[in-house]
Design a protein that fits this description.
Elements: H1 2-15, H2 19-80, H3 87-109, H4 119-139, E1 143-150, E2 155-156, H5 168-180, E3 187-195, E4 201-212, E5 219-228, H6 230-243, E6 246-250, E7 256-259, H7 272-276, E8 281-288, E9 291-299, E10 306-312, H8 313-316, H9 318-364, H10 379-418, H11 422-438, H12 442-458, E11 465-467, H13 468-485, E12 490-496, E13 504-506, H14 510-521, E14 529-537, E15 541-548, H15 555-565, H16 578-591, E16 596-601, E17 607-614, H17 616-619, E18 625-626, E19 629-630
Parallel strand pairs: 12-14
Antiparallel strand pairs: 1-2, 1-5, 3-4, 4-5, 6-7, 6-10, 8-9, 9-10, 11-13, 14-15, 15-17, 16-17, 18-19
Helix pairs in contact: 2-6, 2-9, 3-4, 11-12, 12-13
Amino acid sequence: METRRWWRGLRSALTDMPMERKLLIVFLGVISLPLTFIGYLSYSNYTHSIERTTVSYSTNLQEAMMERIDDYIEDMMRISSIPAYQAEIKHNLIRSNQYYGQRMKANSTSVTDSVPEDFNQLLSIQRGIQSSVKFINNIKRGANVVYIFDEFGNGYFSTESGAVRLDLEKSYRQWKAQAEQSGGEALLFGTETYTSNLNSVRSAFTVVRKILDEASLQPIGLIAVDADIRVIEDQIIDLDKLTHGKSFIIDKQGGVIYDSDKSQLSKRIDTPIIRQASGKSGSFYQTVDGQKQLVIYTTSPDTDWKLFILIPERELNKDSIRIRNATLAATFVTIGVALLISILLSFALTKPLRKMMRLMRTVQEGNFKVQFPVKHRDEIGQLGHQFNRMIVRIDQLIQDIYEMETKKNEAEMHALQNQINPHFMYNTLETIRMVAELNDDDAAADMLSVFGKLLRYSIGDVREKTTVKAELEHVRNYIEMLNYRYPNRFDLQMHADPAFHNVLTLKLLLQPIVENAIYHGLDDRKARMRIAIIVEHTERFLLIRVVDNGLGMTAETRERLNRSFSGMEVNGEKRGGIGLKNVCERIKLHYGHSYGMEALEGLDGGTEIVLRLPAPQSELDTPFIHGGKTND
């Protein structure tokens, strides 16, 4: 309700606004709306273009980086397969297994002291394997450490290539457990953080493979190739500089291989970003630490590692924001200039109209001797020319109407002078009735009395209001008058609640309907014709039903009559329907088109005419309408 009232007030204010203000608003709208729309469209297109370009460029960088990482891991896997082709490594691993196997067996059978170690044999085995490890380390730079283990978990490695894990035994057990399930293929382990023998914290991802004996195809050892994450770090740093964002890599179990902050290294994470990145590659927006960021990801087809790039939206839209600000500044300057021009144009265009309004006020005061000065041939000039012609024509019409009204008043005065006074007619009828009573002619006296009542009621202004009781009484007098002419031929029945007697209605509504029923429905085969008048009401209408048991109407006649009541043209209309149509038109003219009449088939084969008038409660609120005007 408040919104509707506010909208009506706004519409009224705009409608009543002076013309120069309307023109000013139109000018500003024509200029500012396109500029704003174009600026917004340019900003949106540029922003989307930057986003598409960034996504495409970053995806290409990601794919190139993942290819390099995949190549590096592929090299590590090739390195892990070298022992399978190095007879010296396998030979020394077999010797190591035999040596520690014999020692374990000897120690288990000796009940006194343990068997002393054969240092010469151990040194020979260690030198043989470590020389091969040095060779492997020199094949691929970046491999932090290569470890070779026999079946008893004894590790052989070279410390020249880098720092060695202090918890090597724990790492070996983990690698051994996973490698047992494999058939000799290389296994890739995610990043692990460990403490080196140099007391420094390192992070590395590892490729592990079982070493099999060619003859028996039985495992004789294990090789583990550690790759320091610095081989990834350099590429990630370059990627972050290009994208102005942050990156991280996770494996398919959610373990962090690398992240720019190095705060999540070797941890397992499950964030909304990872859950939303369900495909192989793509991009989406996500809020991270209160900042909206563009997330771009791609997946390695070899390792199933996912590389994520997070670019803050403010960094992404930095250039487009500058363009937006420049566009807004240009728009405001343009609107300011347009405002000044619009003010000048609006006042220039409305100046002739204001002058014409002043002339109209002069005409409204009765002075028709004004003229609008026409200086140009544009629309204002043509309007001024038509205004001048209209003033001359109005002045001439006023003179003509004045002369016509003078002649009309003179004619009405002569007609009133020649009109017979209705009181003269009433008094004459009363004199005749008194003479009939003096001569003992009661029937003539009664007929004259009834006829006087009919005449007194019917002669007068039909536009005046009466009551339902008076209308019913007028019909009763009419039927009584007919029964004098046709003794006991008509039986009038009235069913009206006394509560409706004082309801106001139009004059002479019922008598024309009863007269039409008698004139067209009288059946000579019946001794008496019954006419019933029933008064009832609904929520909206006061219904008056006039029902007779006469000859009735055909369906075609009722349809033609109802179409006539509804205001539709009826070709070949008979004379009998004119009186009913006039009654219906009077009802519609006084009360509106929601009211009127309808012809129905009577229950006894006769005709029923239904009048729809305003309900009693709405009668008090409904003004008396005549000819489309309120008659107070």
